[in-house]
Design brief:
This protein has 106 residues and is of the alpha+beta class. The chain contains three helices and five strands, in the order αβββββαα. Helices cover 45% and strands 26% of the residues.
């Protein structure tokens, strides 16, 4: 194998690593941090699409309240993410930006 082919092979392997493997490693690290940072009171959604509020956190288990007096025991790994708090300013801006179709008619 000549030196040009060797460098091309190294370049392809490096590109594969940085384009495919590295971003996946970053996503997995962020996911582990999310699961590790769960606290009582966090509103979360699971991989199954169940929304709930964390009421207890154990080593490998999290308890979610999904309705009044209804709690589910789930694996911490089943939590897909935290639910973002609604931004009141965005909601107010949306109300102002909405045009009334009746106003546009002449």
């Amino acid at each position: 194998m000549d030196i040009g082919s060797f460098f091309f092979l190294i370049l392809v392997i490096g590109a594969f690593y940085y384009l495919l493997l590295r971003p996946q490693q970053k996503r997995e690290k962020a996911r582990r941090e999310l699961v590790r940072s769960l606290q009582v009171g966090d509103e979360v959604v699971t991989n199954a699409g169940i929304h709930g509020v964390v009421v207890e956190v154990e080593e490998a288990v999290v308890w979610l309240e999904v309705a009044p007096d209804v709690e589910l025991k789930l694996s911490r790994d089943s939590v897909a993410g935290k639910v973002a708090e609604p931004d009141d300013e965005v909601a107010e801006d949306d109300d102002e930006a909405t045009d009334d179709p009746a106003d546009d008619e002449s």
